[in-house]
Amino acid sequence: MKATAATASAPLKRSTSLRKWIADYGVYVALALLVLVNIVITPHFLTVTNLRLQLIQTAPVLIVALGMAMVIGTKGIDLSVGSVMALSAAIMPLYIGYGTLPAILVGIVAGALSGLMIGVLVSSFGLQPIVATLAVLIGGRGLANVIGGEIKNLSDPGLVSLGTGSVLGVPYSVLSAVLLVIVVAFLMRRTTFGVMVEAIGGNQRAAELAGIRIRSVLVTVYVLSGVLAAYAGVLVAARSQASDPRTLGLLMELSAIAAVVIGGTSLSGGRVRVLGTVGGALLMQLIVSTLVSHNVADSISQMVQAVVIVVAVALQVGRRKS
């Protein structure tokens, strides 16, 4: 009987191991395969101009996704990031007369304050993260429209340089995204803060009993998410040389969540996969650009993205049940 049971469980173990491997590393395999497919079927895919454009378009999503990954690592969610982007971009024109740097800093401070408010609502008042961030999503977008009104042109030379400039051919937005990836990876893997974030997401009650200051960590995580979203808003506004509070950052929260989930970070918290988030952001951008370059309707593109997200979440669910 024991031999029979062991024999029967062997396929299940192999299936579980395969599912776990796909959930952890499937994003890299999918990204590599999609790159190979594009090399074959997409004209001029490997040109410097095209690759540069892909990275520029990925950078804001990746920056927002880094903050989202930390939030999800605590078993939370941040639906406010798109509105924070719009709010940051709407505030900048009001202070651009004081110089480029002060205007950018004011926009980032607005993101930090938004994150602070969410963190306090979640950690001190016990609001569910989805409720607190949904309130800021709605209120933040409304405030951005009140402050920004109609589209404002941003012709400040400093912002134009930030949006279009480069170092050795590498755009500033891409360089800043790479730098932020390194910083967040260091925080999550080499500091006590990263350990506390994942401990809270894994078991908040146990983390509290272990002496972790839950409130301060949660507030810090949401402030960091707000700061990263605000900076992404600055980059998008600088590149387009305009601030449109009605559309800037629209649905960015969904793109960021998709990148995080596809990258292997579980919505149930307890682990933050920074490199996986990079892969997820690149994969989602490449899927969209591939379909667009072959004249596939936007509605079809959205459905393909939805399928990818469902598959990624299903793999995570299967791994937790095992």
Report what the structure shows.
This protein is mainly alpha-helical and 322 residues long. It has a domain at 45-258. Helix content is 78%, strand content 2%. It has helices at 2-41, 48-73, 81-95, 100-123, 129-148, 157-164, 172-190, 192-202, 204-209, 214-240, 252-262, 274-293, 298-321; strands spanning 152-153, 166-167, 170-171, 242-243. The strands form 2 sheets. It has a two-stranded antiparallel ribbon. The model has no long low-confidence stretch (mean pLDDT 90).
Sum this structure up briefly.
With 322 residues, the protein is mostly helical. It has helices at 2-41, 48-73, 81-95, 100-123, 129-148, 157-164, 172-190, 192-202, 204-209, 214-240, 252-262, 274-293, 298-321; strands spanning 152-153, 166-167, 170-171, 242-243. It is built from 13 helices and four strands.
- Describe the strand arrangement of the main beta sheet, using strand numbers: 1-4
Oligomer: single chain
Give the amount of beta strand, in percent: under 5%
Q: State mean pLDDT (0 to 100 scale).
A: 90
What is the N-to-C succession of helices and strands? HHHHHEHEEHHHHEHHH
Distance between the termini: 23 Å
Question: What is the percent of helical residues?
Answer: over 70%
The total beta strand count reads 4
Broad shape: globular
* Count of discrete alpha- or pi-helical segments spanning 4 or more residues: 13
Structural class determined from secondary elements? mainly alpha
Rg over C-alpha atoms, rounded to the nearest angstrom: 21 Å
Low-confidence stretches: none
> What summary fits the major beta sheet?
2 strands, antiparallel
